[in-house]
Structure formats: C-alpha cells, structure tokens
Amino acid sequence: MDRHDLADLSALRTRAASDVAWFWEAVLDDLDIEFYDPYDQIVDLSGGIERPAWCVNGSMNIVHNLLDKWQGTPAEDRAALRWEGEDGATRTLTYGELHQRVCRCANALRDLGLGRGDRIGLFMPMTPEIVIAFLAIAKIGGVLLPLFSGYGVGALVTRLQGAEADALFTADGFARRGRPIDMKETADEAVAQCPTVEHVIVHRHLGRDDTPMTTGRDRFWADFVAGHDPEARTARTGADDPVMVIYTSGTTGPPKGTVHTHCGFPIKGAQDMYHPMDLKPGETMYWMSDMGWMMGPWLVFGTLTVGATMVLYDGAPDHPDAGRLWRLVDDHEVTHLGVSPTLIRALKTHGDAPVRASDRSSLRAIGSTGSPWDPESWSWCFETVLDGEKPILNYSGGTEIAGGILCGNFLEPLKPAAFSGPVPGMDADVVDEDGTPVREEVGELVLRAPWIGMTRGFWGDDDRYHDAYWDRLDDVWVHGDFAAVDEDGLWYILGRSDDTINVAGKRLGPAEIEALLNAHGAVAESAAIGVPHDVKGSEIVAFVVLEPDYDETAALREELMQGVVDEMGKPLKPREIRFADALPKTRNAKVMRRVIRAAYLGEELGDTSSLEDPGTVDAIQEAR
C-alpha cells in the first residue's frame, strides 16, 4: 500500500478490483517472481472473462522461484521443510539440501524418459519425499497429479485414468495411531486398470520387507535416485503452461480435474500467505492437510515462494493424546498454524489443560478453513489457544480458486466466525438470485473479475467448467457458497448453496441450523440437511454427535429441537433430530452433507472417494 500510495486496505481492494492487470503485475513484483522471458501482457481478456490468458508469451518455471533462485543466498541454509512422524521421528531439510534432492529426483525422472507435459501421480503420505517428488515433477516440466493418501482403488483409477497419468509415486504405507496402513497394494490394484502408467516409484516409509514389486515397472525410491547428480536444469516452460491437475469432488457427477499453471496457483497461494496472512521469510507455517487436498500443494508453493519454512506432520493430531498438536507448534516454532473448525470442536472436548500445558508463544496467528465456525468454538480457540491476543485468519475459497476468496488479516477488526473481507485481488460480492448485491442478508458468493490463480478449466471437460461457474449470471463466477455481509462490513460463509434448504419459500444454509445445535453444551458437532416435503418443498433433518459425557435422551432431543424453534421460528422446526456416532467428512474435515442426505433417503451415494472414513455412512444410516 505504501509503495503504490494507497491510504488503506479498502483503497487497495478498490484499485485491485478496478484494474486487474495493474494489481497482478504488482503482486508478481512484490513476490519477486522471476521469468526466463518476460511476458508481453499480464492478462489478455480478448477471449472473455471466463478464459483469460495470463503472462502472455512469458516463460518461467515456478521451481526456479521456489528453489533455484535461493541458492547462493543466505536462504540456502534456512530450513525449507521440517517433518515429524507420528512416532516422534524428525527431519529437517534446508533450501540447499532440498534443492539437491529435487535435482537428483528430476534427473532420475528424465532417465525414465519423462518430461514436459507428462502427468505424474503422487499417492504418498506427508513425508519429505512427497515434497521432493512434487518439486521434481514441476522442475522437468511435468504435470503434478496430487492424490489423497487415503483413497481407495476406485478413486485412484478415476483420477489416474482421467489425467492419463504416465507414472506414479507411492509408498509402502504409513501409520495412524500406531497402526500400519498399506498403500502399495491399493496402488497396484489401481495401476492394473490404468495402462498409461508405465512407472511406479515406491518410497519405503514403513520399511516393509513384503512390499509387492512388479519387475520392469516398479522401483524403490532409494534405488531410483541413487547415483544421480545433485544439479539439474529446470525446464523452461511457458508461464501459463499446466503445472498441476488436482481433482475436487463435485456435488453431482464425477470428480473435476482442475487445471492450474506455473504462473497461476503458486502465485495466488503465495500472495494469500504474504499479504493477508503476513507470512514472512524465515517464519514457519504448518497447515494440516494431505497433498491430495488443495491446501497441501498450496503449502508447498506458498511457503517456498515466500522463503518461509513448511512443517509436515504424518500422523493423527490427537495421538497419543490431545496435546500433540500444541507440542508440534512449540517444537517446530510454528508462527502460522492452519486447522479446521471441526478439529477445534473435537479438541475443545478435552478441555483447556492440553493447550495450557504448551507454550505457543511462537504463534502469530491461527488460520482456519474447511467448514464454517460456530461462535463458541471460535471463541474457545481465540481465548484459550491464542490467549485473546492474536488473530484467527478465517479463510475460504477452493481448489478452483487456488486459495482464498475471503480471509482474515492483521489490519481489520474480528468478530467470532467472521472473515475480515475479500483477499485483495478477489472482486467478491454477495448477490440475490437475480445478481443484485445484498447486505445484511444471505445471498450467493460471486466474483466479478478474473484473478491469476483461477483454474484454466477442467481436464478434458471444458463444457463442464463453464456450466459449473459461469452459467447462472452473465460474466460472473458463482462460487456455490452462501455468504453474508453484516452491518459492520464483516463477511460470513454459511455453507454450500448447493446444500440449500428451502422450507416453504425460505432459503437457508445448513450452517445456520448447525450453529444453533453446536452451541448446546451436549453437542460435539452436527449436520443439517433438507429432505423433500410435499407441501413445504423441504424439511430439515439434523444429525447430532454428542459429547462423551452426555446420553441420548428424548428430553435432550426435545431441548435441541426447541432451541432451533426459539431462534428460527416454528416454520423451520426440524422434522427430526437424530443422534449419530459420527459424521461423514473429507480428510480436510468438510462434512459431506450430500452423502448424509443420500444415506438418509436411501439413494445412491455417488462419489464417496473423498471420505476419510467410509464407515461413517453406516453411522448415518444407523442414527437413532
């Protein structure tokens, strides 16, 4: 703001929205992004707002900006990656050490004949090797295909086949709560159905002696990289060439392969960290995620662009006890911790003692994403974890966005569960069904201008990309979230608009009902869905998971029901409230209301590949 003579954050947001080319050029300059060949034009909108071309005729490879340019500078000896396993083992790689390992892996990939444009899958736990492979793929000009480490065979096949993958990195397995979980057998079953996959590289993370290997196709990681030179050239790719295809599950149809480029996703992710989150060179970020969810690649691209340190933890955040996460913060001097509200709700049940047993003085902020907050959990996190002195950077966007639409920051006021406002460069608005802006009421979250991180489309399915975001309002991206802006200008996300519950003409997001239920001391978490009703259109059904010390009773059910009626009115009284043992969620803790609704109604479940625990579907079907 000082550099461009802007008085305040509002002025920055206004100029960014009105002059897209100026803003993103300023971002590239602020992040010190280096190009091999300069671009002729930062953005070309001649093809329409839906399909802009970025950094036209420029050439760059993002790995140059993540690793190469730091060599020979003081950053070379700075920690790039700190890793901890569930068993307490740790490893640290400096920018110089990471660079050497990435070069060896890149040379090994080239020896297999792999290179520019080849799609290479990553089906691995969160270990240093997944980051090394990730960067080596981009370094040779390949296209990353990140895959959730908990996927089953069908989910892997869909994505490997969809992207026509040429190779796959995997591991023998990983441990959760001390229990070994095999991966290679799952990978083998999937690859057997994917004839384009010619090479499989296996990291012996568990050290299994019985790992099945296919001669001629499979190689152990150690053998694969052995003997290769610690220097490798970085491919000179077009700035807007694909660097990653990452799949995101839709509410209908098969998963969507969002396409991202060298000058797209990495720049947007780094900008979000550098500007609203204020991550500085030398600081440390740990965002709980898997590489198969967007926050995994976001963490790698963003921290290394800024010159910061990433932390990876391969394990359960509450194992062997509820203090594990807070000890991680202390041991690795984490300045920015990323969590989900769902995790905080779970940790809150253990009380303040595990938190108070830690120091947490390194923390500057907590980031949150994945699901809406309830005010009680937000306040507990703010007061107990952050001592009421440091901000919660609420963050919401998506895989298609390459980061956030809305985010908290260090400059503007906070309210429980709120966002400070749009990330600079995101021309966001809240509108009614006709596209008219609304305030102090619920509407659709939309974007009115393009941004550098927007997906370039869906791999092999361009028509679906248009239908998903651009089909409802002319030249406006409709994101699919309910949102609101209050009287003080703070923003709120109220759940997916495709989860809309329309009761007798009144539209509401499920998060409104869930917040009321979660506020009750007996409730650990909840999910609300809309089910068909002949007269009203829809009725509300809620599923509640109780805290351990509470019993399922008719009196408690009636108390919860009355709480909703008191706040929402009798017309919005739920048809029923059911007690469940668990809720179906993705690995990054998003509640899958679509799956809950289908399970309740006895319909086809659709794509369930992103569920962390498929057994939670039974918990809905058996809810009392």
UniProtKB/TrEMBL annotation:
Domain of life: Bacteria
Stretches assigned to the AMP-dependent synthetase/ligase domain: 75-459
MF terms (GO), sorted A to Z: acetate-CoA ligase activity; ATP binding
Pfam families hit by this protein: ACAS_N (PF16177), AMP-binding (PF00501), AMP-binding_C (PF13193)
InterPro entries reported in the protein's UniProt record: ACAS_N, AMP-bd_C, AMP-bd_C_sf, AMP-binding_CS, AMP-dep_synth/lig_dom, ANL_N_sf
Record-listed E.C. numbers: 6.2.1.1
Keyword hit for Nucleotide-binding: yes
A GO biological process held by the record: acetyl-CoA biosynthetic process
Record-annotated Acetyl-coenzyme A synthetase N-terminal domain positions: 11-65
Protein name: acetate--CoA ligase
Source organism (scientific name): Salinibacter ruber (strain DSM 13855 / M31)
